[in-house]
Amino acid sequence: MKVRIFVTLKDGVLDPQGKAIHHALESLDFSGVNDVRAGKLIELDVDASVSRADIEKMCDKLLANTVIENYEIEIADAAQGTMG
Fold it and tell me: Using CA atoms, how far apart are residues 39 and 10, in angstroms rounded to an integer?
């Protein structure tokens, strides 16, 4: 089973990487970008026996720093081959 975990900084937490990307885009003459927030994508391939609760525990204990980060979990729908 495929799992995607999107980890992003919570609102109000400074994002130096996002600021650097924003500055670089401006210096390359890309306009219209008001703000950039950088995050990370973690993909797991797990057995069907792994529950969503197990994945949440993985996020809480290792994959995300829940003091400053949020995470969103997408689990592939094996029947349709899509993430949801």
Answer: 10
Per CATH, the architecture of 2-83 is what? 2-Layer Sandwich (3.30)
What residues have CB less than 8 Å from 32, skipping those under 6 apart? none
Task: Determine if the pTM surpasses 0.90.
Answer: no
Q: What is the DSSP letter of 76?
A: E
Tell me the average pLDDT across 4-25: 97
Alpha carbon dihedral 9, 14, 15, 20, in 10-degree steps, equals 170
Which of 69, 70, 4 minimizes the C-alpha distance to 41?
A: 4
Rounded to whole angstroms, how far apart are CA atoms 84 and 67? 25
Average pLDDT on 45-57 reads 97
